[in-house]
Amino acid sequence: MKALVTGATGFLGRHLVAELLGRGDDVTALVRPGTDPPPQLAAAVRLVRTDLRSPGAELDEAVAAADVIYHLAASLAGSWRAMFEANVAGTEHLARAIERAAWKGRLVHVSTFSVYALNQLRRGGVVDEATPLEPRPGDRDDYAWTKVLQERVVRAIEREGGPQLVVVRPGTVYGAERQFQHRIGRQIGGRAVLLLGGRNLMPLTYVENTASLVAECGRHPAAAGRVFNAVDPEPITQWRYLRAWLRAQDRAVAVLPFPLALLWLISTGLAVAQRRSGGAVRPVALLRSYVMGPTLRPLRYAPSQAQDVLGWRAPVDLQEALARTFGRASELGSAQGAGSPVAQSVKP
Amino acid sequence: MAAEHLEKLRWLPGVEVAAVCDLHPTLPRAVADRFAVPAAYTDYGAMLAEVRPLAVHVLTPPQSHRALVLGALEAGAHVVVEKPIVPTWDEYVELREAAALAGRMLVENYNYRFMSVVLDAIALLGDGAVGRPVTLDVAMSIGIADPAGPYADRDHPHFAHDLPGGALQNFASHPASLAVAALGGFDGVRAWRRRVSPHALGDDELRAVLSGPGVGATLTLTSSARPSAFTLRIRGTEGTLDVDVYNRLLARGSTGDGLAKLTDGLRRAAHEVASTATLAARFATGRHDYFEGLGTLLRRFYAAVADGGANPPLAVAEMNATNRLVHDLFDPANQL
């Protein structure tokens, strides 16, 4: 199968390329001209040098030659304009190339949990593929806003009779190259961590599992037209993930717990103060309830419907995923820590 | 900057954002939805004709400002325009004359010039807090060589690189506006610029020596200094003023001898403690606003609009002097 991968040099992209090569696919990787891909990637795939923000004719040729397009390219940070150009305009350019080629293959679009209306769920609510989409993405953050817009672009080309679309929405993707997660809290100068809560479950998805699901969505007949969440079947708490991370650090890191109730109180008070002050009060993102809500709210995460629909199973279990992420010394073993219960997976 | 303007306008009483416009086919609608703006356009002329706005904010790349500002002035609107207002001095003169002819305000956004700490420092200077100003040093860190930032992106070069002074010119208005606000214009400029970081796509450091009537100044823009800072120091015949612009902190120092030096030291120590507490309190109470100055500028601008434009928030002479200084900083005739 001929696969075209955008964002191939990114965190998930590198693992997806390895997964596709392992499945015997003929992989073409879209790489920005100024990016130096890892040598093993460059040796194993065909490289197409173009930037989705201002693509050349190479993009049309690459699209026309593909059986499946895996669209991963995205920006997670920067100004809102920069994120719009990378996440929305880049996807629009890909969509126009698909239209020009009258391409009817399968487009696997990698989205995010951030598009869900997590602030609207009740405490303890379950996140699954049927969760409504965020109604106020602009009030969340630029990433959520641009990813919602990005999904609209790919939905539009599907509606107009374009490719078969599969949308994969990963939770928090982790792996050796991305160990610390903002869903835990914030690092303070490398010497301390501000732990926001600790007992909430995290929608973790180990990067090799995510890559496996994305690859499966590119070939399984039943995936066409569906949305699948990427979340590992054994959710763990913030505190338990933090313990694994702490064990992997080569120096002592202080943990400064910050009670979620206090954070809620402060952020709610500041929201009121902002309204009453006519905008003079402008809380930082960490203290905005609508921005932080998805992290602060205790939610449960249903296993991916890919298990039932595709018969797909995450190839790497939790113990092994944590070991590959943090090293063997950080394996969780017997969950010794008080206050770090292992949650059960949820069936909605 | 468009998001910051829209965010500030949301809170301004009596101001209604009537429409947004961008050449991109889907961006205006998305922005309009996000900020509850009733209309979105991709055709600037159509927007001006149909909406007939009282004021237009021109927030596009500077190479496009001239045509957009002229269009807005012709449509009878007052104009706020992002810095740098235009790439060249000649274009600036053309816009200034057009604004005068139309009888409309033309105001360039010098965000930092309107931060409360800078306004306080200027007021103190006016009150003679340092006596007669003798020297001024203004220095600003800029992230134009940050490999992950937009200015060092080789695949999608930032529009600022096409300015006559490169990406440095995109930031020069900030220190220039502070120097001019504090001391007025400068009649002598010597500058040099260079590329320091291998990640930079062009020059990423500018140093200049400025001379004015009875005063001297230095101006530095650099991508190398860390942590990121924007500082202004003014020494006078009777004291000093130190302004930490980003952190909105102001310190006064005397030039006394003997015991005065001791009390000055104690005062500085107390200032450091108070500053730390101030920063923590601002963070916790949502008053650590990086764009505080933009809010003040727009509030004053719209008050002036309501008044018919007679008292713009920025005097024409000051804006002229700032633009002249920016021009001189990059004028090949002034390079060392």
Brief overview:
The complex is a heterodimer of chains A (348) and B (336). Chain A is of the alpha/beta class and 348 residues long.
Please characterize this protein's 3D structure.
The complex is a heterodimer of chains A (348) and B (336). Chain A has helices spanning 11-22, 39-44, 57-65, 80-100, 137-140, 142-159, 207-217, 238-247, 260-276, 289-296, 306-309, 318-326; strands at 2-6, 26-31, 46-49, 68-71, 106-110, 126-127, 164-170, 172-174, 185-188, 192-196, 201-202, 204-206, 227-230, 236-237, 254-258, 300-301. Chain A is of the alpha/beta class and 348 residues long. Chain A has a domain at 2-178 and 204-235 and 299-326: Rossmann fold (3-Layer(aba) Sandwich). Chain A has a 7-stranded parallel sheet with strand order 3-2-1-4-5-7-13, sandwiched between helices. In chain A, helix 1 crosses helix 7 (207-217) and helix 3 (57-65) crosses helix 4 (80-100). The longest helix of chain A is centred in the N-terminal third of the chain and has 21 residues, at 80-100. Chain A is globular. Chain A starts with a strand and ends in a 22-residue tail after the last helix. The relative contact order of chain A is 0.13. By secondary structure, chain B is α/β, with parallel strands linked by helices. Chain B has 2 domains: 2-111 and 294-328, Rossmann fold, CATH 3.40.50; 112-293, Dihydrodipicolinate Reductase, domain 2 (2-Layer Sandwich). Helices cover 40% and strands 20% of the residues of chain B. Chain B is built from 10 helices and 12 strands. Chain B has helices spanning 2-10, 27-34, 44-51, 65-74, 89-102, 116-126, 166-183, 259-284, 292-306, 316-330, and strands at residues 20-21, 40-41, 55-58, 78-81, 106-108, 133-141, 188-194, 205-212, 215-222, 230-236, 239-244, 249-254. A 7-stranded mixed sheet of chain B has the order 7-8-9-6-10-11-12. In chain B, strands 3-4-5 form a 3-stranded parallel sheet, with helices on one face. In chain B, strands 1-2 form a two-stranded parallel ribbon. In chain B, helix 4 (65-74) runs parallel beside helix 5 and helix 7 (166-183) crosses helix 10 (316-330). Chains A and B meet through helix 4, helix 6 and helix 9 of A and helix 1 and helix 2 of B.
